[in-house]
Amino acid sequence: MKLLALLSLLALMLAQEARTASLPKTERETEGDQPHGEGDSYAVLQLGDYVLSLDDYDQVIDLSNYDELTDYREQLPKVKGTSLASPTRTSFTQSTRAPRTSPSNPTMARPTTRGLLVSLTSHGLPTCLICVCLGSSVYCDDADLENVPPLPQTTAYLYARFNRTSHIRAGDFKGLTKLKRIDLSSNFISSIDDDALLLLPALQDLILPENKLAALPVLPTGIEVLDIRLNQLQSSGIQPEAFRALEKLQFLYLADNLLDSIPRSLPLSLRSLHLQNNMIETMQRDTFCDAERPKHTRRQLEDIRLDGNPINLNLFPSAYFCLPRLPTGRFT
């Protein structure tokens, strides 16, 4: 039994010697001089037959050639330096545009109608700022005018319908020697000065329907068309010789008024006479024809309307003998 234990101890000793003999000299010296502690695990790295020591690290990486390495910073693109500060935000209320200023020329601003007619009369053509001027025609329809506006001296045709004009003054058409047509339909005209139209030598058409006229003014002798329908015209407002001097008058429209008699002294140039829807009850024998000239005829007067009146045309047969046609109206 003792012999068996002795043999085992001898075998262990031989095995230890064999292991020690197989190690390199340096490791044997280290192992013999210094015991291995737990904190020295990184001092020696055993990689099979190759042992890497921290003392030999400079042999693995040659730091002397580090300057030969490529400097990649030289290959980077050059970028121009810009400010990274955020741009200042402009307030919406503080516009970068220059502030608007009112025009320095007062005539270019849009003035009121009253200002145009009063303060700018001496500046040329003020009416053309509120009306439409096309050649010799002036259109002031529906412009809310209370008076006839100042007109260019070359005006030949005036259209100022659908306004609030109530009176025609003596100087409204002063100096307008080329004025041929005046159309003031659908206003509130109740009176016209006698001198307002008398000094218009070129006037041919006077159009005044849908107003409030009760009397006729003095008319220029060259007038050809007179339209005063839908007014408040009375027979007392027409002078007995009002139409005698109108030797060029061709169309006389007096319908829808308050007339109780047919106007006298109608010119021979007359072609159309409209008197419908009045209060005419009678007529004179010589209203249309001259009784002293039985063979005289009025061939031009072909259109006479008396319908809508209380008159019985059958009671006045001798009043039509010179006419090419009988008047339109009631014969019963």
UniProtKB/TrEMBL annotation:
<feature type="signal peptide">
    <location>
        <begin position="1"/>
        <end position="20"/>
    </location>
</feature>
<feature type="compositionally biased region" description="Basic and acidic residues">
    <location>
        <begin position="25"/>
        <end position="39"/>
    </location>
</feature>
<keyword id="KW-0732">Signal</keyword>
<dbReference type="GO" id="GO:0030199">
    <property type="term" value="P:collagen fibril organization"/>
</dbReference>
<dbReference type="InterPro" id="IPR001611">
    <property type="entry name" value="Leu-rich_rpt"/>
</dbReference>
<dbReference type="InterPro" id="IPR032675">
    <property type="entry name" value="LRR_dom_sf"/>
</dbReference>
<keyword id="KW-0325">Glycoprotein</keyword>
<feature type="region of interest" description="Disordered">
    <location>
        <begin position="80"/>
        <end position="111"/>
    </location>
</feature>
<dbReference type="GO" id="GO:0031012">
    <property type="term" value="C:extracellular matrix"/>
</dbReference>
<dbReference type="GO" id="GO:0061975">
    <property type="term" value="P:articular cartilage development"/>
</dbReference>
<dbReference type="GO" id="GO:0005615">
    <property type="term" value="C:extracellular space"/>
</dbReference>
<keyword id="KW-0433">Leucine-rich repeat</keyword>
<keyword id="KW-1015">Disulfide bond</keyword>
<feature type="compositionally biased region" description="Polar residues">
    <location>
        <begin position="83"/>
        <end position="107"/>
    </location>
</feature>
<dbReference type="InterPro" id="IPR043547">
    <property type="entry name" value="Mimecan/Epiphycan/Opticin"/>
</dbReference>
<protein>
    <submittedName>
        <fullName>Opticin</fullName>
    </submittedName>
</protein>
<keyword id="KW-0272">Extracellular matrix</keyword>
<dbReference type="GO" id="GO:0060348">
    <property type="term" value="P:bone development"/>
</dbReference>
<keyword id="KW-0964">Secreted</keyword>
<dbReference type="Pfam" id="PF13855">
    <property type="entry name" value="LRR_8"/>
</dbReference>
<keyword id="KW-0677">Repeat</keyword>
<dbReference type="GO" id="GO:0016525">
    <property type="term" value="P:negative regulation of angiogenesis"/>
</dbReference>
<dbReference type="InterPro" id="IPR003591">
    <property type="entry name" value="Leu-rich_rpt_typical-subtyp"/>
</dbReference>
<comment type="similarity">
    <text>Belongs to the small leucine-rich proteoglycan (SLRP) family. SLRP class III subfamily.</text>
</comment>
<dbReference type="GO" id="GO:0001525">
    <property type="term" value="P:angiogenesis"/>
</dbReference>
<feature type="region of interest" description="Disordered">
    <location>
        <begin position="20"/>
        <end position="39"/>
    </location>
</feature>
